[in-house]
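Hi, here's the filled form for the chain we discussed.

Project: internal
Contact: R.S.
Residues: 287
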Amino acid sequence: MEWAGAKRFVIVLLIILNVGLAGLNIRQRRENTMTSAQEKAIFEVLSENGITMYTDLKIGAEPMDRFEAKVPTYVKEELETAIFDGEKTRVSLGNQKVYKTNTKTLTLDGDRGTFTDKSIEKGLTSLGREDAIELAEHKMEQMKHIFGSFQLSYVSKGEDGWRVEFCTTYRNETIFSNNFTFFVSDLGIYGIDFTYCEITGVSQEKKDICFTDEALLTFMREWKKRDGAKDATIQKLELGYDLMEQGSAVAGTGLYLEPCYRIYLMEESQPYLVNAYTCQIVKKNVK
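And the returned structure, exactly as it came back:
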């Protein structure tokens, strides 16, 4: 009987413990989510300062890892298969590494790459948005075995063609700094610009990040510093990872990716970046 009573006591204790842990988890989730009052307040503050929001703010603020990364080394034959459609290339070495065929050129410089195909003329008359995305996705799929999983991030239209952008993903997180921009005309893909670093590890301890409303206030203060700043419209806001180092990364250097909010304005092609750890604007050198 004593043993049976002890077992019942342990079972009851475990049930109480589980209920307590469940309560703590629910409380933690609530603490890491913006309230409706916070959402209303940030919409009002932005509106008073000439900034309109056309995006959802349902982004949690749970602690996030810091990623370690490096500039990758590439295999010539893999680049030829993925980017040059199997054509053999000539390689020249220097501060930059350049791969060439008669009409195509790939230039690699640290974490950055530029590809051009002179056989594809620029210009846009009939190619639609979905067809441009399909062409870019097909090419990105060819490159997947080198650069990993990816997702569509942004599409815009210009006189020379469509601009279709992708980011890679890692552990279900979006990696903003691993960015691939495809330039697509009526005749096909005439150019690709990309930055890419290989993720090699994860920090041992997660760190708290700022809430979406805090990131938006940081953006607002930065935006209002600009001379002649007019009304603005935020059309997209997302949370992911970006490379903190400025300029081109150098092979063999230890690099770090930290959580960032990326804020797109309808009036501008380049997003604003806010470091989610420090809630500070990240100044990036745009190529």
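Let me know if anything looks off before we file it.
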